[in-house]
Amino acid sequence: PKQQHDFEQLARIISFEYRDLTHCIYRKAFKLRALRAGLSSYEDKYKWTGVSSPVIHSAVKEQTVRLTHQKSVWQFYQVEFERALNKGDIVDIDLVFTIYEPEHSFVPFISTTIEEPTKQLSFKLTIPSSFGITYATREIASCIGARVPFRTERVQFDTNGHLEWDIPKPKIHHYYELRWATPKEFQYDKASSGASTTRDIFKDNTPQV
To answer: For residue 194, is it left (φ>0), alpha (ψ between -120 and 50) or beta?
Structure first.
């Protein structure tokens, strides 16, 4: 069935950066075009199952972000704009999630499902080369955990430990994922201790679990 949408996403950028072995920054940036008048906020969701809770703030000082309700395993939040938008107005959102994970207990990947018309989707991943991680895997599928993905491809980091994945006109209701290995320091610690691994997953805007 045909869906009605409040916004068109001109750009959606999802990034993850290791500042060091225990400190990470997850970031979600959107450039939205209002498809009708009177819109004063934007609603989205995330899933984080780690021991520590991310600290979330808006990098756009005129906007505020607040957690709203939970649905199933998802935490919803709302970004309030400075004013109500007119039809055709363009607004930028930039949310920063600060994460401290001393044991790196999370499964390392970022992902999204396209639920609104989107012109450009981009993933950005930065991992220091000293971590010993040389590649990541990108995947397109019908949903998270799909038995048979549409496409899977290995991609190399550059010499600065950075890679980008740009997807022009991503298909609506398709799932996009970028995953990488756990840093070798934590692989050794977990193997030697025999400790179980808690699944800490950042899944952005993904309706399937």
So the answer is: left
Those residues with Cβ within 8 angstroms of residue 7's Cβ, 6 or more apart along the chain or in another chain: 32, 33, 34, 35, 39, 42, 116
Q: 81: which 2 tokens?
A: 């704009």
Return phi, psi of residue 104, to 5°. Answer: 45, 55
Characterize 58-80 residue by residue with b for buried, 16 or more Cβ atoms within 10 angstroms of its Cβ, and e for exposed: eebeebebeeeeeeeebbebebe
Q: Is the CB of residue 150 less than 8 Å from the CB of residue 141?
A: yes
Q: On the CB side of 38, how many CA atoms lie within 13 Å of its CA? A: 1
pLDDT tens string 88-116? 999 999 999 999 988 787 888 999 999 99
Neighbours of 14 (CB within 10 A): 23
For residue range 163-209, list pLDDT tens digits in order: 999 999 999 999 999 999 888 776 654 444 444 433 344 556 443 33
Cα separation, 127 vs 142, in Å, equals: 28
